């Protein structure tokens, strides 16, 4: 008898379901519609792949990620699943061949780009499909419903939302599926957690009667750290050298220019770094993405154009050299680390300059005022998060409406609790210096005034006569800079675009100046490199890094790379790191024992079992 669990074991090689997977699989297999909200790495693919194998007919998976379909299909074929894809990257002959496989009922799963699916000719082809003549044989045995189409899966369903930066207009047309194939179950999946996007997905895809499966969005294996920026490149390199000398990861920058410069600089420093942004040719972008996916230890320096659907499981870090635009952005981008559940780092540096330029960018864009207001609020929420001294996991999840007990031991604030201090008096000095100098100067000059410096600009504006001149000598330049950053982040000050980014007071500053409101600020930690040894040790405890010096680990990885190269697929399509790690730890001696390793299903056991047993024997 074919059940979800037997397929999970035999085909995928996993012993048990994760979280809501089983209920989702059962619900969809029984013909129900579903909306699945699950974090990246939560295991969404199985939620449609298993029903695809359990139900009669072919599952049609709509995905916007043309460049990644090949890898998704490769991964399924490795498991012995009959999968194919149809999109504009295929030549006419290849497309014809896939179409005929589809018509002959030879496919379990077909990935299609939305624009292809919505072509009238393709839709009528789907309508004309008839149930496979193989019903009753092989895997079709036990199928619950006889039909030519098993289900529609709508992956990356948030692409239907016009507010997100992944908006794809063609996704709006997908309502046609419900209208033309009312009996075929639909499952929409996304890792975008916020309530407005969820509501929009339901409305736009007419999923009002679908059952919703909302998982916890916590990513316990990701360690969040945010440090203040003093020298971004130096800080990045210290972080990479200390914690990720050989790992694959993503470095996010705001602008294309910064991406190019940073990638170039990392290369000159001996790192295997590649750029990725929308200003590059499609061919070059794809080539870089290809290297990132297929080779080990490549660092992708990118704008947010990179990342959606990247299912490379062993991205070990995501570093932000610039602020993301919102909490949603931060969560999505950092979420690309550690899909395999092994320890991963989300690391960010940011400074006052970022806050100012980000606010200016929002204000000077030509979006309607209403939208700008929403974006400003989103940025403020992110800034509050950056400056917060509370548990990052807790704060992040609270933003998405989920409770977390705190004390995660997986963020900077929990690992090294941050000191706060009563900065009311210093804040008054800083704010009053802004006021006295006419609310049009930038922070460098304001600090010079507070420190009582004597330079040309001070002379020019006669600022040595201000009452705030030299009153801040008890604090250092760095401390004032930290204070100004936090005052801007906290909304007490804003940058004035017309005055070239000079700072001016907001209404929030008034009670502080009047002395009716206290201001508590965080005491910035020392640069991260000082703590990295301890952090490294804590990672070693998790058992991952400890193995990287083991020659047997290298031998297993080499074998994996050799097999991957032979077939032109990414190494993780052969085995994930987590599977390889289990092979290393368990050291199976027979095929039977190998088959019990998580991630080794029947097809992979047959194809690779002996090769890896041999590596173990020789090691
Ligand atoms: P998502 O699409 O939600 O980001 P994936 O479907 O890519 O996540 O799954 C993330 C990782 O977890 C993949 O490597 C997948 O093989 C693995 N995985 C999913 N479900 C299970 C399970 N039940 N047991 C073990 N590993 C699983």
How would you summarize this macromolecular structure in one to three sentences?
The protein is 45% helix and 12% strand. It is built from 28 helices and 17 strands.
Please explain how this structure is put together.
This protein is of the alpha/beta class and 619 residues long. The protein has 4 domains: 4-214, Rossmann fold; 222-350 and 388-415, Rossmann fold; 420-522, Winged helix-like DNA-binding domain superfamily/Winged helix DNA-binding domain (Arc Repressor Mutant, subunit A, Orthogonal Bundle), CATH 1.10.10.10; 543-618, HRDC domain (DNA polymerase, domain 1). The strands form 4 sheets. It has a 7-stranded parallel β-sheet with strand order 3-4-2-5-6-1-7, with helices on both faces. A 6-stranded parallel β-sheet has the order 8-13-12-9-11-10, with helices on both faces. Helix 19 crosses helix 21 and helix 24 (551-567) packs across helix 28. The chain is globular.
Question: Could you list some keywords that capture this structure?
Answer:
619 residues; alpha/beta; Rossmann fold; 7-stranded parallel beta sheet; 28 helices; binds adenosine-5'-diphosphate
């Amino acid at each position: 008898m074919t059940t979800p669990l037997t397929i999970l074991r035999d085909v995928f090689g996993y012993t048990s379901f994760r979280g809501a997977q089983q209920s989702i699989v059962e619900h969809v297999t029984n013909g129900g519609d579903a909306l699945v909200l699950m974090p990246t790495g939560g295991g969404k693919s199985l939620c449609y792949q298993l029903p695809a194998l359990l139900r009669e007919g072919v599952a049609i998976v709509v995905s916007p990620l043309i460049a990644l379909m090949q890898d998704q299909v490769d991964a399924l074929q490795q498991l012995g699943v009959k999968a194919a894809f149809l999109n504009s990257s295929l030549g006419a002959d290849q497309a014809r061949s896939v179409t005929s496989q589809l018509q002959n009922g030879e496919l379990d799963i077909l990935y299609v780009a939305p624009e292809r699916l919505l072509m009238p000719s393709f839709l009528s082809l789907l309508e004309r499909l008839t149930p496979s003549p193989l019903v009753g044989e092989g895997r079709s045995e036990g199928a619950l419903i006889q039909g030519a189409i098993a289900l529609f899966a709508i992956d990356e369903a948030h692409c239907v939302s016009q507010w997100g930066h992944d908006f794809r207009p063609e996704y709006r047309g997908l309502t046609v599926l419900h209208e033309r194939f009312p009996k075929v179950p639909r499952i929409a999946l996304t890792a975008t957690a916020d309530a407005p996007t969820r509501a929009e997905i339901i409305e736009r895809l007419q999923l009002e009667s679908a059952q919703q499966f909302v998982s916890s969005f916590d990513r316990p294996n990701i360690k969040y750290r945010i440090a203040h920026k003093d020298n971004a490149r130096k800080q990045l390199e210290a972080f990479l050298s200390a914690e990720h000398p050989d790992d694959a990861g993503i470095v996010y920058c705001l602008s294309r220019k910064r991406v190019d410069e940073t990638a170039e600089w990392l290369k000159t420093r001996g790192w295997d770094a590649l750029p990725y942004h929308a200003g590059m040719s499609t061919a070059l972008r794809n080539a870089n993405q290809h290297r990132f996916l297929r080779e080990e230890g490549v660092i992708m320096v990118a704008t947010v154009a990179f990342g959606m659907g990247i299912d490379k499981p062993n991205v070990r870090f995501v570093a932000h050299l610039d602020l993301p635009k919102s909490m949603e952005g931060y969560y999505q981008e950092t979420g690309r680390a550690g899909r395999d559940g092994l320890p991963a780092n989300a690391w960010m540096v940011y400074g006052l300059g970022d806050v100012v330029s980000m606010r200016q960018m929002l204000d000077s864009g030509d979006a309607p005022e209403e939208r700008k207001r929403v974006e400003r609020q989103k940025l403020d929420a992110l800034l509050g998060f950056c400056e917060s001294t509370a548990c990052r996991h807790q704060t992040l999840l609270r933003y998405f409406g989920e409770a977390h007990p705190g004390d995660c031991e997986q963020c900077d604030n929990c690992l090294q609790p941050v000191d706060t201090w009563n900065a009311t008096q210093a804040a008054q000095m800083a704010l009053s210096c802004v006021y006295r100098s006419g609310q049009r100067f930038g922070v460098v000059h304001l600090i010079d005034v507070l420190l009582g410096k004597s330079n040309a600009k001070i002379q020019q504006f006669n600022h040595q006569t201000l009452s705030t001149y030299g009153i801040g000598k008890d604090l250092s330049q760095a401390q004032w800079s930290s204070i100004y950053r936090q005052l801007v982040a906290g909304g007490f000050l804003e940058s004035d675009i017309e005055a070239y980014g000079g700072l001016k007071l907001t209404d929030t500053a008034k009670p502080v100046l009047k002395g009716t409101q206290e201001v508590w600020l965080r005491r910035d930690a020392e640069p991260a490199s000082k703590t990295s040894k301890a952090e490294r040790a804590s990672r070693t405890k998790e058992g991952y890094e400890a193995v990287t010096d083991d020659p047997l680990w290298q031998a297993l990885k080499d074998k994996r790379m050799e097999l991957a190269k032979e077939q032109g697929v990414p190494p993780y399509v052969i085995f994930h790191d987590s599977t390889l790690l289990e092979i290393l730890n368990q050291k199976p001696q027979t095929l039977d024992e190998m088959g019990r390793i998580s991630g080794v299903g029947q097809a992979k056991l047959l194809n690779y079992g002996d090769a890896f047993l041999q590596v173990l024997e020789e090691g």
